[in-house]
Amino acid sequence: MSTAVTHAPAGKPGKRSAPIKGRFTPWFFAAPGLLLLLVFLVLPFVLALVLSFTDQRLVTNEELGTDFVALRNYVRLFEDDSFWAALRNNFYFVAVVTPLQSALALVLALLVNQKLAGARIFRTIYFMPVATTMAVVAVIWSLLYAPDQGVINRFVGLITFGMVGPHDWLREPGLVMPAVMLLSIWQGVGFQMLVFLAGLQSIPLDLYEAAKLDGATVKQQFLYITLPMLKNTTIFVLITTTIYAFQLYTQAQIIASSGASAPIDSFRTMVMLMVHEGFRNGKIGYASGISVVFFVIVLAFSMLQRVLLKEERAVQ
Amino acid sequence: MASVTMRNIRKVYDNTVEVIKGVDLEVQDGEFMVFVGPSGCGKSTMMRMIAGLEDITDGELLIGDRVANDLPPVDRGVAMVFQSYALYPHMTVAENMGFGLKLAGSSKAEIAEIVGKAAEILHITNLLDRRPKALSGGQRQRVAIGRAIVRKPGVFLFDEPLSNLDANLRVQMRVELTKLHKELGSTMIYVTHDQTEAMTMGDRIAVFNRGIVEQVGPPMELYHNPVNTFVAEFLGSPKMNLLPIKWTRNGDEACIEVGGCTIPWNGNGHGPLGSVSDDLLLGVRPEHFDVFDSGDTNGSIAAKVEVAERLGDIVLLYLKVPGIEQTLAVKVPEEGHLWQRGATVTLRPRDKTAMLFTKAGPRVS
Q1: Range of the domain at B262
Q2: What does pTM read for this prediction?
Q3: What is the ipTM of this complex?
Q4: Exposure b/e, A23-60, CB count within 10 A at least 16 = b
Q5: Which of A60, A69, B102, B275 lies at 20 to 30 Å from B217 by C-alpha?
Q6: How much of chain B, in percent, has pLDDT values that exceed 90?
Q7: Edge-first strand listing for the sheet containing B204-209
Q8: CATH number of B94's domain
Q9: Chain B residues lying within 8 Å of A229, measured CB to CB
Q10: What residues form DSSP beta bridges with B330?
């Protein structure tokens, strides 16, 4: 942020407020944003951290009160099989969805970036699921995954000539996560596509022309120009997709709530566990402990990603 | 090295917009040809068609003896220096310069040797490990030229390569490019809208205007013998003065009437009497006027000083002639004269320097 320096008007000696005013000007402009961040991000996190060392319950019980329990929530958490299952599910989801969704987004961006008739229509079509509520998407996909009349089973049967029989995608423990992944990628890929598209369109065309004169084929232009020039975009997409993937909740929760789902630990995620412990079982202290641990894990993962994929910061 | 021949080349966009309307031009082997013209005249499009970056709608392009219309850019034996330099930002200078060779399958040692030699020619050996973002404008310019050199092209194409540089660097690079042409002896085609670059660098200049070539020739020939008002005005700074005139007779002498004054045509009174209409323009370059203090206006043009710009060695006078809308530019040597605003002076075109043009543009011989 640039500092606005106001000079005291000439002919008004003794007014020494100008430099001070100048010093506070940036803070004045940043204040609304900082206030929102403080109230909705910093404060809840500090509260969660504090509560994680207590046995705070959702409905306060005056007889029992709230006590400081030191690290008991954390000890219990690491002994909880559901926690490890949720963590495993989260990592499984991230490990598959992040690279697949990013790669697919890049392919779609390359396709809709072509100067072809109808490219804009496809751009809109690919983006439409992003604008659709995840709850609606999850319900529709639940119908698509239906074991008897579901479109997915029919499609699988068709392309395998009936060799792969109908599956109960949302009830089989081994299939429920891939099913959630597929619908999540379908819903989210449009956003990353748009980011890649912006990245692609910011690459100067004369670089491609220079490469053509240097003798680069289309494939070589992609390898030596497009990919390196998309480095920062790719890093952004990978990190944001990872963070979004860690936050997996709505679609899995709707499947869990549909009644006839696979065993809960085969697809329950950290956020689901957190909500379950905090709002179903009323253990706010314990849920806060989960959220703090989860925050640290996501932060560490994102930072590791950032270190591994060094961003090209300097601007030409 | 190679010659470039353009035969009735046309370029039409979307079947409607014709930007090149039939260009016939031959660039000889080893020649430094400058395409000059205002923005939108088609000079860059013409160059891009030679490079293979634009399709040719109609006509024939020969590079050397080969018809190049449908050849991919890499097979044309041309190298281009872009206005933006178009250096690959993620590659070092050495990688930028050697990229074409790498794609062509040259060995690392071979690439290093060729890049090293080109870097020596351009004095950028110390920059080889840097990325473009760590280079100044002038250095980037050299790298872009270096990238062209290593490909050992038959034809170098320069698309306004100096327009992003500051004035001093532009002059320096202009000299260096001219020297480079002498050293390499390659065919070079250079696009610019800057008439100074065109005049100082080219063996020949092709003046483009609205998709056609108005005139081709050595710079001084174009300067002294422009075929029309467009070329006459485009070359030279300040541009040539074009004054509306009328023919009159003074006995047997041909005279012109300009701004209420009658002066003998070309000083000696002999001219194309009666053979031309009244719709004429008198073209006089700013340095071809003799300026006198107010006095006898007989045989001279009376004018008032509006502005005097002192440039050190010369003074540019901007003068107003009664009855003529446009301001006249006159270049006189700096001799300490005051040239006060509003002062009346008399002007006389020097003998045999003035040219006649019809109002439609073509020169009257």
Answers
A1: 241-364
A2: 0.81
A3: 0.85
A4: eebeeeeeeeeeeeeeeeeeeeeeebeebbbbbbbeee
A5: B275
A6: 65
A7: B78-81, B155-159, B187-192, B32-36, B204-209, B212-217
A8: 3.40.50.300
A9: 89-90
A10: B317
